Amino acid sequence: MKLACMMSNCTGYTGHHSIKGNMKREQNSTPIKAKEVKFLKSLAPPLVAAFLVLSPICSTPVSFGQTIDIQRGVTLFGQACIGCHDAGGNIIQPGATLYTKDLHRNGVDTEEEIYRVTYYGKGRMPGFGKECKPRGQCTFGARLEDEDIKILAEFVKLQADQGWPSIEP
């Protein structure tokens, strides 16, 4: 027996007693491993949910391009619209605000309609498009590019849908 023990220490040979000891240790650790696996499996769904909620994948805007468009929309709104439509209101004509209820009532509740009114004007609001006519309906100031009016219309619609939260230029 001593010879077997000495050999196991020197050559890696495991004797009869060592194998039984290893098997007993493995049997004793199996319930512990099963409990660890069960515990980890119970934690997985809440951890994945927390990761998804807190990850930038789920937050809006979803792309860098949208962030740039929103910032461009803020800038354009500050240049062309804020004089009359501060915070989505209307200091000239109170029933023509940029709030969802007024946009809907006035038939300007889609991006396309907002684009059209911004381009050509309507009522007391001047048009800002490059090809706006008649001249009296159009702004006497700087005209906006078509792409800028599109960004502005998207921005106004987004703000209206969100109830005109505070915007920072």
Q: Give the low-confidence spans.
A: 1-16
Instruction: Report the oligomer.
Output: single chain
Structural class designation: mainly alpha
Biggest sheet features: 2 strands, antiparallel
Cα gyration radius (Å): 34 Å
Shape: elongated
* Overall number of strands: 2
Strand composition percent: under 5%
**Overall mean confidence score, pLDDT:** 79
Could you give the order of strands across the largest sheet?
A: 1-2
CA distance, first residue to last residue: 85 Å
Helix segment tally: 7
**Which bin fits the share of residues in helices?**
55-70%
How do the SSEs run, as a string of H and E?
Answer: HHHHHHEEH
Brief digest:
This is Cytochrome c-553. This protein has helices spanning 2-11, 16-54, 64-80, 82-85, 100-105, 111-120, 146-161, and strands spanning 121-122, 125-126.
